[in-house]
Design a protein that fits this description.
The structure is a homodimer.
Chain A: E1 10-14, E2 17-25, E3 32-35, H1 47-54, E4 58-62, H2 78-91, E5 97-102, H3 104-115, E6 120-126, H4 141-147, H5 157-162, H6 167-179, H7 195-207, E7 224-229, H8 238-246, E8 250-255, H9 262-265, H10 267-279
Parallel strand pairs in A: 3-4, 3-5, 5-6, 6-7, 7-8
Antiparallel strand pairs in A: 1-2, 2-4
Helix pairs in contact in A: 1-10, 2-3
Chain lengths: ~280, ~280
């Protein structure tokens, strides 16, 4: 069985796009499709998280259209990204999957559930928020400062994005930075300079104010697990609370002293919580 | 080994009060002391929850001063109730316990951690809120309606207190009502008519507006698990969010489609979440 570090990058054609993906883990059960964050590639996932989840199911990582090794253009709407993701999943011949989305990927995951409700069994929304969420039309002041900063080592950017300033969170962050460089063979190349502007445009449309912004959440009936850090400065934590309050069938978990990357700060706890949610049908 | 249904009621003297308690479960590890809600006795706990938690530790139920089989008067402050609870725990000869509090009991649990920080290892706050929490100075309109209602069977009151109006929540509620009547020998008698006024007075003082109402939470450094239903109408759910946001080291879990008694709606999930929190040291 291959792992996060050894799974080869494969390709599948759908919607005119050549999708790069990796697939590994326990072939029993419902596969889990993971949607990545702003400017991220398959190599930005934490192997402790992906391999941990892969013990109980197949984990499918992929680059959406226009990202790194996948062909095509990044759509300027979340709905467009979701349409591509749904086409990708169907091209794999899958008729039922669980869907996890992190940050921008969490917006895509919501739109996947709306666009293809029969395809999605359960939903996991990590470090993300609803349409017209608080401070989601533009990057938050904290995000602008972090993304605009200069760093001794380029990876250090992620310490400010994903972790709080406390000693224990930063220490967990440095462990994460080691882990996400452990795959040495067949890594994705970084995304082109065209990716960030398109994704920011899509985020802006999603986050723009509108009437009854959260009404759409009543149409997402899948059992949903909403997870975030208690102090997320990239997509404010209150947005996770709003998701739980408006989704008909959602559990919320907020972890202590953690920011946007809480699942990388508490990888074992996160894997335990997500596995319980996926394996049991408590709701 | 005795269980929720077979553990005898025992007595211990402390602070001039003769405390009734029951103690059962795995003698290894740190005992868990459970603080009951408004007008409740030891018999109001869910045996699926108490016996589930007792697999990994001793569970200690007790009636605080003036409640049912325990002598004395109900204090008109939460701090007074906490002082009695601390005296009770020390009278058992225990120097380190985990403390769970539900609703009113969650206020007592917070004050126990403040009054005796070395006595309390970890804290579990269920269906509760902070000092000066939202709508915590008086009963909420929903609580007034439920407690003022008339019921075919007296136990039906709890369907409105603990569960949402949905079919699945009410069905879970009816199962709970069966379970909490299963202990037949040595049940507590109902509380006297003096209990509710004293507890309401204490709740009013706790909930009253004050300056910097949540600053005290920074002094509760114990690892804390905050749990509630996503739609608690007795102590509004947002109060659990406020607790998590202000406690230095707290995880929040909100369960879907559930009200004040979410732990009785999802007893197995609750036992699993609490056991993970108590057994592991993820934070």
């Amino acid at each position: 069985m291959t792992t996060h570090h050894t799974a080869p990058t494969q390709f599948v054609e759908a919607a005119g796009v050549n999708f790069a993906y990796r697939r590994f883990g326990n072939p029993e059960g419902v596969p889990l499709v993971m949607n990545m964050h702003f400017t991220g590639t398959m190599d930005h996932w934490d192997p402790l998280v992906t391999d941990g989840l892969a013990k109980g199911r197949e984990v499918i990582l992929f680059n959406n259209a226009g990202i790194s090794t996948t062909s095509g253009e990044v759509p300027t709407t979340i709905e467009g990204m979701a349409a591509n993701a749904v086409a990708f999943v169907k091209a794999l011949g899958l008729s039922k999957v669980d869907v996890l989305g992190f940050s921008l990927g969490g917006l895509v995951a919501q739109e996947m559930a709306l666009a293809a409700p029969d395809l999605v069994r359960k939903l996991i929304l990590v470090g993300t928020g609803p349409r017209s969420g608080e401070a989601m039309e533009t990057l938050t002041p904290e995000a602008l400062a972090v993304f605009g900063g200069t760093y001794e080592h380029p990876d250090d950017l992620w310490l400010g994005v994903f972790f709080t300033p406390t000693d224990r969170s930063q220490a967990a962050g440095r462990e994460f930075l080691k882990r996400f460089r452990l795959r040495t063979e067949g890594r994705d190349h970084e995304v082109s300079e065209k990716v960030a502007p398109a994704q920011i445009e899509a985020l802006g449309k999603w986050g723009a104010p509108r009437e009854n912004p959260h009404a759409y959440l009543k149409s997402i009936n899948q059992p949903t697990l909403v997870v975030n850090g208690g102090n997320d400065v990239i997509i404010y934590t209150v947005n996770s609370f709003i998701l739980q309050q408006n989704l008909p069938n959602a559990q919320l978990i907020l972890y202590p002293d953690s920011s946007h990357g809480s699942q990388y700060q508490y990888p074992e706890l996160f894997v335990s919580d997500v596995s319980t949610f996926l394996d049991k049908n408590h709701f």
